[in-house]
Please model this.
Amino acid sequence: MSSDEKFLDLGFAKLDTDRKRRTGFAEVVFCQSKADDYLVEIYKRLYEKEGSVFGTRASEHQYELIKELFPEVIYDPVSKILVIEPKEKKERIGQIAVCTAGTADLFVAEEAAKTIEYFGGNALRVYDVGVSGIHRLLARMDEINKSNVIIAIAGMEGALASVIGGLADKPVIAVPTSVGYGANLGGVSALLTMINSCANGISVVNIDNGYGAAYMATQINRLAVFGGVRNE
Amino acid sequence: MSSDEKFLDLGFAKLDTDRKRRTGFAEVVFCQSKADDYLVEIYKRLYEKEGSVFGTRASEHQYELIKELFPEVIYDPVSKILVIEPKEKKERIGQIAVCTAGTADLFVAEEAAKTIEYFGGNALRVYDVGVSGIHRLLARMDEINKSNVIIAIAGMEGALASVIGGLADKPVIAVPTSVGYGANLGGVSALLTMINSCANGISVVNIDNGYGAAYMATQINRLAVFGGVRNE
Amino acid sequence: MSSDEKFLDLGFAKLDTDRKRRTGFAEVVFCQSKADDYLVEIYKRLYEKEGSVFGTRASEHQYELIKELFPEVIYDPVSKILVIEPKEKKERIGQIAVCTAGTADLFVAEEAAKTIEYFGGNALRVYDVGVSGIHRLLARMDEINKSNVIIAIAGMEGALASVIGGLADKPVIAVPTSVGYGANLGGVSALLTMINSCANGISVVNIDNGYGAAYMATQINRLAVFGGVRNE
Amino acid sequence: MSSDEKFLDLGFAKLDTDRKRRTGFAEVVFCQSKADDYLVEIYKRLYEKEGSVFGTRASEHQYELIKELFPEVIYDPVSKILVIEPKEKKERIGQIAVCTAGTADLFVAEEAAKTIEYFGGNALRVYDVGVSGIHRLLARMDEINKSNVIIAIAGMEGALASVIGGLADKPVIAVPTSVGYGANLGGVSALLTMINSCANGISVVNIDNGYGAAYMATQINRLAVFGGVRNE
Amino acid sequence: MSSDEKFLDLGFAKLDTDRKRRTGFAEVVFCQSKADDYLVEIYKRLYEKEGSVFGTRASEHQYELIKELFPEVIYDPVSKILVIEPKEKKERIGQIAVCTAGTADLFVAEEAAKTIEYFGGNALRVYDVGVSGIHRLLARMDEINKSNVIIAIAGMEGALASVIGGLADKPVIAVPTSVGYGANLGGVSALLTMINSCANGISVVNIDNGYGAAYMATQINRLAVFGGVRNE
Amino acid sequence: MSSDEKFLDLGFAKLDTDRKRRTGFAEVVFCQSKADDYLVEIYKRLYEKEGSVFGTRASEHQYELIKELFPEVIYDPVSKILVIEPKEKKERIGQIAVCTAGTADLFVAEEAAKTIEYFGGNALRVYDVGVSGIHRLLARMDEINKSNVIIAIAGMEGALASVIGGLADKPVIAVPTSVGYGANLGGVSALLTMINSCANGISVVNIDNGYGAAYMATQINRLAVFGGVRNE
Amino acid sequence: MSSDEKFLDLGFAKLDTDRKRRTGFAEVVFCQSKADDYLVEIYKRLYEKEGSVFGTRASEHQYELIKELFPEVIYDPVSKILVIEPKEKKERIGQIAVCTAGTADLFVAEEAAKTIEYFGGNALRVYDVGVSGIHRLLARMDEINKSNVIIAIAGMEGALASVIGGLADKPVIAVPTSVGYGANLGGVSALLTMINSCANGISVVNIDNGYGAAYMATQINRLAVFGGVRNE
Amino acid sequence: MSSDEKFLDLGFAKLDTDRKRRTGFAEVVFCQSKADDYLVEIYKRLYEKEGSVFGTRASEHQYELIKELFPEVIYDPVSKILVIEPKEKKERIGQIAVCTAGTADLFVAEEAAKTIEYFGGNALRVYDVGVSGIHRLLARMDEINKSNVIIAIAGMEGALASVIGGLADKPVIAVPTSVGYGANLGGVSALLTMINSCANGISVVNIDNGYGAAYMATQINRLAVFGGVRNE
Model:
């Protein structure tokens, strides 16, 4: 096992320890289908390096595994997030709205909301406001517009993103979900809906990718709070 | 050339002269890609039989062709409808709303509206009320709900159908259009959106098929006006 | 937990209690993949509000769950419908034909038929009349045509919808099913068949969506029985 | 340019002069997109070898080209067949039914019928008998069943093949066509319909491939007329 | 439960008892996903009517079920065929070659071969002769060509059908199989290969549809043995 | 022609004059396939209302048309943008990097860059830095990272977005382009690449949608310059 | 059971014993879904003939099966390779780099690496060097370029192949993997990325096909070590 | 316009002048859809740098354009290659077989063959040897096997690659072509065939990508002639 300053070489994996410096975010663990030994090793190494570890798509079994080593690890069965929180917590900044079309989209929404919070932002949860009863969304729209960025999560036909896009004055990150059946094609239909949106200010991430949406939303939220480049 | 009471055998075509008795609608001509000779023959025969002819997807060239024989034929370049109106007109009945998401969907909407009118119904045109500016739709919703059935026409992401479906108390026939670009896949994306709609009371016809939507809407409109079976 | 007159906010869900006023239909529960706690809460709340609850795609396990609270709940393992019937029953009106191509399509057909009956219509069941033995359909066609609207359910190649469309004088709602194998693509092939139908008066809902077809059919049936707008 | 007994090597092409011995059919020319020089050379060489040449998917321009060399060449603009007939004609044998759903499918049907006739069979043309008016097909079914094999040609939803399959006692070769629009996907929808047919005794060739269907139908027709292996 | 001469109405199913007269083949049972009660009823009724029953895609469990009633029933775990043979057997006629590319395609091949034999034909089994070692096919080609019709079964890239098509002088029915992985798309890749074949005399049935291929092959085999129409 | 404060009803179109108040952006004209009369009317009305008009996907012909009325209109044949600039220009703010993989992607990049500039932002153009010669990108990466947000434009395999995503500390909006051939599927391949990106902080807009990417990038750029919500 | 010199006919299989002479590689066993009896028979026969057997995609159960007969058989649960090594080992030649984008791709990489070693080559393992942290790849590039051929393995968006292709001076064989979720379409997205690569010197094998990549890489490695044709 | 040693920055393009050092191949121009000015500038700059320029997918018009500046430029209308040959020619080395299934695939084959020759290899042209007449291929197989690497080019069902793969002892690079119609899906069907090949030693490039196949074949040919790494 070799190592240098920019990554930690475990043979089966090369932990990107330069990531925080380069991108402002420490490496996150995609737990799904990782072998037991590898996962434990990765949690140990990252914890040593960063003082906290954040994993997505973890199973109940993986929770048991890590808990033996780190009894303080927390597992949320809805979002499948497996996290060792840092010792000291900072105050959360800004606001990101997390909206879903239905109750069945919650597993994606909670992955997004918990990621936002881990990365230090405030998450505004607005669930089950799909277009089949649009008054539920309209009743919350003012509140949503007080966020710096909006995450719109929907399965089936995915129309929520377009409707929010037409009503919002903030960027919208759309997340298609695999919720639905038949011609939903495992979420591809909702993905196509969102990519073809007639509304402006919408961009799209992978099906069920709550984490990815939260990551980009955090980048935008930070820019809005801390400011960015003002003039070239 | 043989013939019997139920169809007229022209060799290259068998005109379904039994259709009116069987379904309540005379045969309509799908003009697209019909050979010149065939088209003229079909218009002649149908006119003899029915006293009027209604053709869809006709070209400018086909208009010229039929005009030589029937100077009274009318051609609409937007909807591509080529019609010889019947001598005596009946009063129109009921009402069918024809809604579009954008201006670019008009060619489909006019095919639908003119078909409705030819078959004896009133068409309420509500154009360019897509979800990117939903207040335009909300402003017309009361009027729309006074129809017996609603046709929702949209390209790109096709979200209009779901939004109308959530607000209406009448059946909605959704027509995806080929309007858009890139991942619209020639209208397949809008079709998938509509088929997966989370709203109820929506069913879908083929891409750009304004005629088909109008046909079914007319059946429903007639049922609403003339009544149907009350008890088994 | 907040609430207002138009929806009931349970946090994880917003029950659309305005739906009956707006659309004429009370909210229905899509049981599939709902968490146990959520489902129980939703059945309780809806029952308080409406005096009856209708759920689709329920599992045996969900039946056990609800039965503890509502011993009168009824579960049908074929259609997967889980219903608490209202105290007083109204007489059923009109008629809707529910036709299937094969025996394997029954789970969709019964979802449709039971939905029709819950919403107060008469359902005419015509099963296993697919085009591989078309005399079986022809023998029932007169009876079918005495309905106000027809639901045509078929998997594999889905040709039934076109054949009925050519013989009927009533609107046809086509339901593709996932029945078949190989190139049936989980029902997408039958969906494409129905969307491309050469017959008129046909529109299509999602794969296996017996409920959706029944909902729209009920809207049409009511229009035919109670009448709609006569003149603009 | 080299040559041996089994193929004629023209460098850019290797004419399969062994085919007649091996398969019972001389090589046929697929004219589409062949360069002018190559086409002329191929017609010349095949004519020398076989005394007749049969080409499919030929353009008007290619007709002019070959006519300079072989004034007796015949071109049919519907089927796009470009043929130099053999000097002496044999009596035609057996019978193959060629059925189409619509008038727009004729270009495929005539490719099939003319191929059948070139290869020495009788073609029974039954055009425009699609399922939207099924009485037109039923009226001809007895006649169709007197053939040794049936070719069923249809675009749009392609249901004709299944219906014929259910009524016939002879093998059915189904040809999907590119006729239609929107979700017909250039003929792929009809292809899927036919491949998933619930009726038995149906197999499928490529979209618009009238020639391929006629070839296989001819093989079957010959077996029926001349007989094949009786016992192993 | 009603009944007439042409079908037997069991409510959940309408047994096509006219099929043998109309097509020359008695109805066959597609066992997959049939409810236990229905399957038993169907076997009973068909046995009463026909004196034998042939079922495809049966499970071990279904075998146990039917065996209680009919101890003489035979089940083959490879082909999944569940058959009650007729009391008296006729001599088999003609010959049909059943070829596979690999060993993994056997489950389809045996479904085909056993169907052929049940319908009274001789099946020539030629297994594991795929194009990765083409000498294995060439060594058997003479024998194959002594059949009246050839069934070519292949998964993965499905090239076997084209190669046999180029070497055979008999019609080839191609069966794509779901054998393979990755971009085989569950058999769709092999299906596309076969549909696009550059060889002539090939047509295609659904993925894994050994029964369908055998049915059509039997029709052709019977024509070759008993003869068909000779002149129009 | 009716009108109210929130939209201007032209019958064929409803100009969303409320958009600027609601979203911070005036309505933009999608010129493609708009009828001549409609386009002229829309430019006139929007100019009256807003004092400037910005149109995308305009043709040479449409430029001539508008130039007759507004001689000051400017047309860029690469980006197809047709703009009437406002009288007074504001200083541009912030910075958005616009990167392309190849030279052939310029038509999309210029649509994005010109949109950014019209909406008041600075665009940093970094063209032809695709991954086949990655040193070209690395040489510019510091400069790119000084932007508030990055637009990554690529056709063919679209790998540029992932590579930039791995190197950047700012949000990346990925634009797949239709550049390529064969299995690029008109840009769908690049779209899939970008949606599946293993790098974080990437979201995706429609194929060739430079305008959409620029719109969202402008929203983010404004947040970074003017600041957003700091604490909930 | 017959047999000749070029293949061994087991009825259910025809072992290609001519393969080594013809291609330089002995037949390899694709274990997946082979019946127990068949697998044992094949291992026995191949071992008699070749003195070693190499099987891919073997299950734990198949390992137990073969171990009874050949206690020396070795099974690797990551790569699923089940091998009976030859008695005498030769020195390994040349070098082939095996690179992966992530840790989850290891099961494919180890299938490739072990195949390379079985066929007598040296494998250089370079794992987890995906483009989200490209410095990890750049740090190893010199080493990689000292191979004769490179295998690039990646799931999700599959960008690794293009980046290596741009940096390498050796042929690259790209292997898409099924690793990922949502719009990865089971590996089809990565496959499309690699097929559309803007970099040169890249060709692609099937999803997860580590064996196939290793086979071709071995052919190239041998050519590089032993030399090939120098002049025509 | 800036510049450094590793690339030449033209603003609209960054010529990769480091490529020859890095990969052994100078930059090649993909002419298709390049603007006139850009193309001329690129040819000029590359000629200055390299003394020769090789362009693919050039149009007749682009030939005229470059000819004005470089009268010695050569254009081949079949392969669409536009080349300024270097002053001094080197002797060609090794051998690469270029095989096609049909005559229609020649445009791809000549792109490959001419690329091979430009890069200094010998090309063995073996055209029109598709599997519908496999004796044509068998007759040339010995000759083909005397090459260091084989390019197999085929449209339609693309079976040629598998058949050659089974007979060859050299690596095979397969090129699917867009030749065919209907379900060939513009070459995607042939691509799928080749990717799923049951034969070993085959990898695949993009549809119609003769250049890409030739590039990789040249890398392999050079390794075979000049040798590579012998031991790690």
